[in-house]
TrEMBL record, chains A, B:
E.C. numbers: 2.7.4.16
Organism: Sphingorhabdus contaminans
Protein name: Thiamine-monophosphate kinase
Taxonomic lineage from the root: Bacteria, Pseudomonadati, Pseudomonadota, Alphaproteobacteria, Sphingomonadales
Other information: Reaction mechanism of ThiL seems to utilize a direct, inline transfer of the gamma-phosphate of ATP to TMP rather than a phosphorylated enzyme intermediate.
Family as reported in the entry's similarity comment: Belongs to the thiamine-monophosphate kinase family.
Positions annotated to bind Mg(2+) 5: 206
Chain residues that bind Mg(2+) 3: 26, 70, 203
Length: 305, 305
C-alpha cells in the first residue's frame, strides 16, 4: 500500500494555494472578505479507527471530536459539519445517528449537509468536514515555533490509552479513562484562549512525541521533550503508575486530542497547560528524562501506514 | 441496509440550521460577514460509483466534477477542495493523484487539504468537499419553482449513458460519449449566468426525471416533462436513435451533470438550455410525449439503495 507520507507528498506538490498551508496544518485557512474560514476534513475507517464491536454512538462522537480538535488548534469557532456516510445495517445507522445528534448538541455545532453512499458489504468508511471561523489573526500554524520558545500541552496524556486497554480487556469500563477514549473533548475554549499567545499550535491526535516531531519539522527547529514533565491524570497513574515506561507510552499514544503549543518565554499562559519542553535551533525531536537524554523509541506514535 | 431516504430523514431532524437548507439542496449556504460560502461534500465508492477496472484518473475527475456540479447549481465560484482518500496500491494511488491534478488544473480549483486513511483490503471509499462563494443572492435552491414557470435543462442528456454502454461493451471508446461519462463538465459558467434568473435550480446527477421529481417535491408543485423535448446530441441519436424509449432512457440516467432550472415565463435565458416542461399547481412529476400523457416508469433514475 502507498504510505501516507508518499501520498501526501504527491498532494502537496499540487497544493500551492497559501490557504492549503502546504498541507502541513490539518486545516485550510481561507480569507473571505471580512472573515477567515477554517476548514478541515477527517476520515475514519472500520478496523482502523474503530473496532467492529464499538458503540456506533462513540464512533459518531469521535468523528465529530477529531475534526473539532483540528479547529481548536486554530483557535476557531466551529460553525457546522458535513457528513459523508456509508449506509449499513439499520440498527448501526440509527445508533450512529443518535450519537451524532448527541455530539452535535454537546458541542453546539450544526449539521449542514453531506452525502450517503451504498455499502456493498465492505467495512465502513466515514468522513466529516468541519467549518469554523478564525477568532485570531494570524491563525496559528505548526510552523511558527522559534528557538527559545517553551513547549506546553493542555490537560493530561495517556488517559485514552488506558481507557482503550480497559475496554479491550473486556472491563466494559464506563469510568473516566474509557470516556477519555470513547468521548474525547476537543479543546475548543483553550484553543481560542491560546491562539493570540502562541507561536505554533497543533492538536495531539497521533501521540505527543510524533506530533511534536511534526511541529518541529514544520517550524524547522529542534524540540526537546522532558518525559518527567508529561502530565498524567491521577486515574492514569493509579492504573499504570508514573514510571518512565508509563510516561513514554502516555507520550506515544494517539487519541488524546489535547493541544500542543509553543510560546515565547515569560508568556502568561491563560489555559490549563503543562510545560513539557522547549525549542532550540536544530532539527527534530529530542527526548529527555529530567537531565538524562534518551534514545528515541522506534515508534513515536500512531502512523497510518 | 438502511435506505438513503431513511437515513437522510434521521439527519434532517437534527439539521434545523437555515444554512443546512433542510438537507434538500446538495449544498450548505452559509452567510459569513460580507460573503456567502457554499459548501458541499460528495462520496464515491468502488463498485457503486465506479467499476474496479476504471481508470483512476477518471475516478478523480468525476469526484471533482460531481462536487463542482453541486456548486454550479448554486451559481457559485469554486475556490477549492478537501480530499478524503483511502490508501491502496501504489500504482492506483499515483494514477489517481495525477488525474486529480489534471482535474483541479482544468477547473482552476485549489487543493486545500484533506485526510488519508489506511485500507485493510476493502473496496475504496473516497470523499471530496468543495467550497465556493455565492455570486448571486439569494442563492438558488430546489424549492423555489412556481406554478407557471418554464422548466429548462442545459446541454444534452443521455451521452453519459451511451458512453457507459460503449465502455462496458469493451469498445474502450475515447470519443465524445465515453468522455461524457468519464470526464463530465460541470456547468459552472452556466450556473453563474443562470443564478440571477431562476426560481429554482439543481444539477442533474441522478437522472432528469428523478431529479425533476425531487425539485417538484422541494417546491411543492407539479412539473410536467415532455419527453419529445429532451435534448439529445447528434452523437447520441446516431448511436441510440431518438425514439421514445431512447428519450426515456436519456431522461432516467444519471451522470449527466447538466443544470435543471425553472424560470418565470418570458425570461430571457442567457445560457444554452432547452425547455423540457413547465410547472403547475399539484405535486410530483408528470410525463408527456408531446400531448400524450405517459405512465411514470417504475424507476425514474439512479437511487442509492
Amino acid at each position: 500500500m502507498t504510505s501516507e507520507s508518499t501520498f501526501i507528498s504527491l498532494m502537496r506538490a499540487m497544493a500551492p494555494d497559501p490557504a492549503a498551508r502546504n498541507l502541513l496544518d490539518d486545516c485550510a485557512v481561507i480569507s473571505l472578505g471580512s472573515e477567515t474560514v477554517i476548514l478541515t476534513h477527517d476520515m475514519m475507517a472500520e478496523g482502523v479507527h474503530w473496532l467492529p464491536n464499538a458503540d456506533p454512538a462513540d464512533v459518531a462522537w469521535k468523528l465529530v471530536a477529531s475534526n473539532l480538535s483540528d479547529l481548536a488548534a486554530k483557535g476557531a469557532n466551529p460553525l457546522g459539519v458535513l457528513l459523508g456516510f456509508m449506509l449499513g445495517d439499520d440498527k448501526w445507522d440509527r445508533a450512529f445517528a443518535a450519537g451524532l445528534e448527541t455530539a452535535l448538541t454537546h458541542f453546539g455545532v450544526a449539521l449542514l449537509g453531506g452525502d450517503t453512499v451504498a455499502n456493498r458489504g465492505d467495512k465502513r468508511a466515514l468522513g466529516l468536514t468541519a467549518i469554523g471561523t478564525a477568532t485570531c489573526i494570524p491563525v496559528p500554524s505548526r510552523g511558527g515555533a522559534l528557538p527559545g520558545d517553551l513547549v506546553y500541552v493542555t490537560g493530561t496524556l495517556g488517559d485514552a490509552l488506558a481507557g482503550f486497554e480497559l475496554i479491550e480487556a473486556g472491563f466494559d469500563e464506563v469510568g473516566p479513562l474509557a470516556k477519555a477514549y470513547n468521548r474525547p473533548e476537543p479543546r475548543l475554549a483553550e484553543g481560542r484562549l491560546l491562539a493570540p499567545l502562541v507561536n505554533a499550535m497543533m492538536d495531539v491526535s497521533d501521540g505527543l512525541l510524533l506530533d511534536t516531531e511534526r511541529l518541529a519539522s514544520a517550524s524547522k527547529v529542534e524540540i526537546a521533550i522532558d518525559l518527567a514533565r508529561i502530565p498524567l491524570s491521577p486515574t492514569y497513574v493509579s492504573y499504570r503508575g508514573d514510571a518512565l515506561e508509563s510516561r513514554l507510552q502516555a507520550g506515544s499514544w494517539g487519541d488524546d486530542y489535547q493541544l500542543l503549543f509553543t510560546v515565547a518565554p515569560h508568556t502568561e499562559v491563560t489555559a490549563a497547560a503543562t510545560q513539557v519542553g522547549y525549542v532550540r535551533e536544530g532539527a527534530g525531536l529530542s527526548l529527555f528524562d529530567g537531565e538524562t537524554r534518551l534514545a528515541l523509541p522506534s515508534s513515536l506514535g500512531y502512523q497510518h501506514h
